[in-house]
Amino acid sequence: MKYLHLIWANLKRKKLRTTLTIGSFAVALFLFGILVVVHFAFYQGIEVAGADRLVVINRTSIIQPLPMSYKEKLLRLKGIEAVTFANWFGGVYQEEKNFFPQFAIDSDTYREMFPEFTIADEQWKAFLADREGAAVGAATAKRYGFKLGDRIPIKGTIFQGTWEFNVRAIYTGTRPGDDQTQFWFHYKYLDERGPQWIKGIVGWYTVRIADTDDAVAVTRAIDDGFANSPFETKTETERAFAASFAKQMGNIELLIMSIGAVVFFTLLLVTGNTMAIAVRERTGELAVLKTVGFTDLGVLLLILGESLFIALQGGLLGVLLAWGAAPGLANALPGFTFYLSPSQLAGGVGLAVLVGLLAGLLPALSAMRLRVVDALRRV
User: Fold this and answer.
1) Which among 210, 219, 269, 261 is positioned nearest to 239, based on CA atoms?
2) Bridge partner residues of 219 (DSSP)
3) What CA–CA distance (Å, rounded) separates 244 from 181?
4) What predicted TM-score, i.e. pTM, was given to this entire model?
5) Phi, psi of 255 (to 5 degrees)
6) What dihedral angle (degrees, nearest 10) is formed by the CA atoms of 266, 269, 275, 281?
7) Residues 256, 88 contacting (CB under 8 angstroms)
């Protein structure tokens, strides 16, 4: 800290160069933050998936249904504590662009299966009492201005016609990654009003197991139990089920890591070159510092301090800009949750500091090894 005033004075000497270098760090860390929130958005279901929940779908495809009768059969299997089901609705609100996920749910069991979603008891009671009632995620309610008691028309795509729902409950998530964009309504309403082919079938089942260590055994028991039937099943953990959706979009994680690596490598070269020029311009001054008593280690720390100071300022600015931009991404890409956690913010700043350290290391070592006689000869 005793060299701080000297570091600051050196950085102010070339204000434009210092500002541009800080800006380079800010842009790189802003991009890093955006890549992190995009990664989180695509993999949010994996991160928050319940370890004690399994998803049972039709073996052919998730778009193929399963019989309603499977619910009781699942409950009789050893190791299963609870079963619920849901069906994809796939409607739009007012315009085609106004899309959010809508599920016809087993309202008697759904809330207990997903305790991470918080709903006021009086609102849930109102939802249960209204056959046309709907429970809306807080993010969707905020986006469209839905309030309790509103009458919401949804234009069906799979199930034709205009379906009207009463907003009776608004749910929130207990964790940042919980999906608060969904729209739930009673499966019984879909069963009563829907086409004849929907009678007695559901989209998928979610089951809770008593012991997570038995997940493999229970999965095998479910699929073996329905083998060679007209509706064979494919069962997997909720985490694996969410991961399969993410993989359908390609290897997003590899793409993000590749872009991030290129950005930071470029930043390393740019900053290293900047610090090398700064050291070369001050060769005579460094020799004078050594002459008046600065040690080799002191000169090393002085140069590294300048590099780290630039990296820290730019890194903080970049991650804060990314943190502020996350809500804007959520508005631009509805249906995804964009979130930058404090640990990710700290990780970004730490990465910037590491780049600053590496970029300043070679110039600092060069300054440390500089001999006074050789330096003064260059002046």
Assistant:
1) 219
2) none
3) 20
4) 0.66
5) -60, -45
6) -120
7) no
